[in-house]
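Continuing from the previous page...

OK, I double-checked the sequence for SUEL-type lectin domain-containing protein against my notes and this is the correct one:
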Amino acid sequence: MARDSMTSLKFSTSIGRSPSEYCLTDTFVADCKLGSVILMTRALYGRMSAGKCVTTGYGYLGCHADVIALFDRECSGSRSCRVKVSDPAIVRSKPCPLDFTSYLEAEYKCIEGMYPFTD
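Thanks. Re-ran it with the corrected sequence; updated structure tokens here:
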């Protein structure tokens, strides 16, 4: 779903989720309560910083690709979604040298609204 399609939603309340790390073997899972839908606010794939998935930088931190378009298509406007971090569409972005493990950093909000949109 394209971001500009989200303008039809009513933005009366939202619940934010802070950015989380998802390692290559993990699955990104987003869930919202009934009557709310997902709005992806961030999705980066790479080696942003040392943490849960990358414990040592080896001189390659800060390389990443913005994969928000893929997560918008898969998740934004839905009540729930699941995306494997190892999905070829994500891994294909190859933001860092291939010898180094990348991970996903993602964030979303739950906003009040229903999909498909009705007037």
